[in-house]
């Protein structure tokens, strides 16, 4: 009897200690994390532009023949079971180019949003603030992309958006849905004189861990009410891991916009992209990109030339990652246009070739 009492007392004490330890672990788990990212670069444009700026439709790595910072940011992220928030402050030539239209301190807000999980059982979230774009397979964070520079379509669709996002993810992680109300086409502050919101949708399906399919849309206007032109954008892409060492991305964007405020006729543009990546080891990767951008009416990229913007691009990329958080990259890229839209030593040219080197560190 005595042994039984002692054993029961010991088990009770052990259980109480385990419960106290669990509670202490829960209490000491910090929901706040601090991270950062820095991406420096050097780019040489063989056209040697007089103002040292790369072509105006490129918003990353856009300075010629100088060492520069593309983007650097510090991010604070807060996450619990039902709440989340992100705040990232950024600097660099990417910020200067993409946030030029924003006033004051908003020029340095890389990301700022707060979210609440609406359902205790299902993965349904409402996030409001400045969020990453729902369009395209490339982001502003270089290490997350297969190529050093961004595709022409990524450079000319939003990198960030300001608005509200309602999202759902299935329990098995295969299906994700989102609906967005936005301030405009890559806008934090809405265009003065524009009284309407823009809208977006996103559907992502992952039938397996080797295939990702995505379809995103945008509908809205980015002009004052007096000159309102409705814009409709469609983005479809797939990411395919063909084997352990070979991956493929294919993408097609098609956009339409009214020609005049009262006109039913639409201007159209389209841009296909394909990227093949080979990773022979965990330290090395090679990427080959082919792309084309057709915008004959200059809706997205105005040239003032007879054929508008009709440009083909090709690039070769070499990556070396000596550490898990360090990435060294080298890329050779060539662009060829139907018209002479590129500056070359004070004259015009149909061709543009550049070589770019970058170093990226995440922490």
Automatic annotation (TrEMBL):
UniProt cross-references to InterPro entries, sorted A to Z: BBP2
Keywords: Signal
Highest taxon listed in the record's lineage: Bacteria
Signal sequence coordinates: 1-18
The keyword Signal belongs to this UniProt entry's keyword annotation: yes
Record's protein name: Porin
Species this protein is from: Flavihumibacter fluminis
């Amino acid at each position: 009897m005595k042994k039984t009492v002692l054993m029961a007392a010991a088990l009770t004490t052990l259980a109480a200690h385990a419960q106290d330890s669990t509670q202490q672990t829960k209490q000491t788990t910090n929901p706040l994390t601090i991270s950062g990212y820095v991406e420096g670069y050097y780019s040489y444009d063989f056209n040697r532009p007089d103002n040292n700026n790369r072509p105006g439709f490129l918003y990353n790595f856009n300075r010629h023949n100088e060492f520069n910072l593309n983007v650097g940011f510090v991010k604070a992220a807060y996450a619990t079971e039902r709440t989340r928030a992100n705040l990232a402050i950024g600097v660099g030539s990417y910020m200067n180019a993409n946030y030029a239209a924003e006033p004051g301190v908003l020029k340095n807000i890389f990301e700022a949003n707060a979210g609440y999980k609406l359902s205790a059982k299902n993965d349904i979230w409402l996030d409001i603030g400045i969020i990453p774009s729902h369009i395209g397979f490339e982001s502003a964070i270089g290490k997350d992309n297969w190529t050093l520079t961004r595709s022409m379509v990524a450079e000319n669709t939003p990198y960030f958006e300001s608005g509200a996002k309602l999202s759902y993810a299935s329990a098995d992680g295969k299906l994700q849905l989102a609906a967005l109300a936005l301030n405009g086409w890559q806008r934090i502050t809405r265009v003065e004189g524009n009284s309407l919101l823009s809208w977006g949708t996103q559907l992502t399906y992952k039938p397996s861990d080797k295939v990702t399919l995505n379809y995103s849309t945008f509908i809205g206007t980015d002009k004052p009410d007096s000159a309102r032109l409705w814009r409709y954008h469609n983005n479809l892409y797939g990411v395919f891991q063909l084997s352990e060492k070979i991956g493929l991305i294919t993408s097609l964007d098609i956009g339409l916009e009214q020609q005049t405020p009262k006109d039913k006729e639409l201007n159209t543009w389209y841009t296909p992209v394909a990227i093949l990546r080979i990773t022979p080891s965990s330290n090395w990767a090679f990427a080959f990109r082919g792309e084309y951008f057709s915008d004959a009416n200059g809706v997205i990229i105005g040239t003032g030339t007879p054929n508008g913007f009709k440009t083909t691009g090709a690039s070769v990329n070499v990556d070396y990652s000596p550490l898990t958080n360090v990435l060294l990259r080298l890329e050779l890229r060539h662009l060829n246009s139907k018209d002479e839209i590129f500056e070359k030593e004070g004259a015009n040219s149909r061709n543009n070739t550049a070589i770019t080197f970058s170093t990226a560190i995440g922490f």
